[in-house]
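Subject: sequence -> structure tokens, single chain

Hey, anyone have a minute? Need the predicted structure for the following. Not urgent.
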Amino acid sequence: MFLAEREYDAMMQKVRLWIAATRPWSFLMTLASTLLGLILAVQSKSYELDYIIPVICGLIPVHAASNMLNDLFDVKYGFDTVESLRFRQHPIASGVIKESMLKKAILALYGIGVIIAAYLTSVRGALIAIFAGVGLILSILYNVRPLRLKEKPLGELVVFAIWGPLIVSGTYYTLTGYLASGAILASVPVGLLVSAVLLANNIRDIENDSKKGAKTLAIIMGYTAASMLYASLLSFTYFLLILLIFFEILSPTSLVSLLTLPKGISLIRLLRNKSPEEVDIKTAKLTLSFTLLVIIGESLNLVSQAIRAS
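Reply:
Had a minute. Here:
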């Protein structure tokens, strides 16, 4: 009986590690960018809602594969070690999940994304293959040397492109069958905030990353200049939101996202006061809140239009 319990506990630990390896909490941002593309598509009055499920089912496995690829090569390149803060939940460093199994899981997850992208390409157009191909290539180049963009000054630009224009505009195109400048522009604030998440992470890790030979934007700029850039990204996000509303790309109800402004100001002050710990996590929460409030604002606009029409 005791042996069976030990085997069950070992199995559950392995299951928990596999789940942790995908970093499921990070999927919320992918879902938020997708939902933003969805609500913008619904506003276009010409959309195929049936395709939103394949879009989500394609994006999440690829995101999970990218997270696992990140863990794999963080160990290979010495960024994650036994002494790492994440050791207890690290799929490889813990020794519970073998590297060969992780590689197979990564390939399987990428494969799911490719299959779904191929299906959507066949029914919605060749541009989806371009969106998917660029996203896949960036996912790999972000994690794998010789480029390994996460160690380079281009890391922030990569995450901006993926969670901004690629996911939002890609979703919009899949649902509507065409691209719109409004959807691309509306994705920029989200992309800027996601870039700020990575920048905050890299600011916090300047010392450790420098020892590993990384050349992130934060390392090149130094703490003070990188903190100023972080403040600029957040500030420009809110300024751009106002511009998008002024030029009627977003509706006035999206002003509700300004509720996150005090949090943004507090995060800027934290970095200015040399307190970078957990600023990346708090910025991720800010990004998610901001995006969801924009979605809520645009949804309220749709509801008000429907009421006026009736």
